[in-house]
Sequence to fold (326 residues):
Amino acid sequence: MNQERSSMSTIYCIIDGMTDPSFRTEDYPTLSSMRLDKYLETTPEGYEPESLTCILRLLGVRDIPKKMRGYVEALGANIPVHPDDLILRGSWFSLDGAGRCVAPVKAPKKWELPAGVFYYRLEDYKSLLVLRQHADEIDQLVTTPPYASTGQPAERFRPSGSSTLEELYEMALHKKKCMILWGESVPSRIAPFPERAAVICGTNIVRGIAKLLQMDLLHVKGATGDVDTDLYTKTQETLMAAKRYPFVLLHINGADEAAHRRDEKEKKAFLQKIDAEVLPALLQSGHRILLASDHTSNPINGQHERDRQPLFIGGCKRGSDESING
Fold:
């Protein structure tokens, strides 16, 4: 729908992994001009602090299935899945001579697998595996996420509970690299987002969230999901979308990737770039601007952490928004 709206819209800017132990609002002049409204509990009890859960929480979803990350990644990547499929994430790492994980390595384009197992390369070191008619195995699986995997023996990440997964692990284990299988999931459903909404993003997981919640996904050239993303184009597309939609989600991911690389300087420089290039344009647009982080991403250890996240409000003059969840 291309018809422009005359009323004010809400632009919700989620900066993935914005906060960390050294994060200070005063380091970012434009952010400092916004009002700190409250702190949000983005990670429910019993859940891990990861983008899928935390972003759904920020968008008001309360009943979040625990095992659906791989499925939502598949949605975002347009990968076909069936109701009885088991979907896993596969993260590729280089190994040293002692079989220890060194660093993420580009996922191979293709991989010959047994019948009923399908491999899909995503971006960089990420991939997905779809196991046809294996959904009933999900509760017996034990996998280990690759967080803080540097220096850890690959054997620590061997999956258990499924002979098929154990076989896949062995097939992917080489002298110089391995694939860590984790994030097991099955197809799930969630109620649609309650108003007409558009999503601007550069990552598969947020594309998948848009499809899961039946929000309109707008494709933006140059949106990479990392610090090299085209912030100008994303900002302009967001402002254009706000003329047509009452709610626009702008997701910016690079700070989280920099933190996973344990590059504190890169993370801060990217946040400063957002503060200088994105936020002024949003705040001057006449729309209502909300800004939050989904979770803490610590560049010292490269991990997500469970912390309450600040919600900032700017643009129009309104009081505290009780509709914002957390």
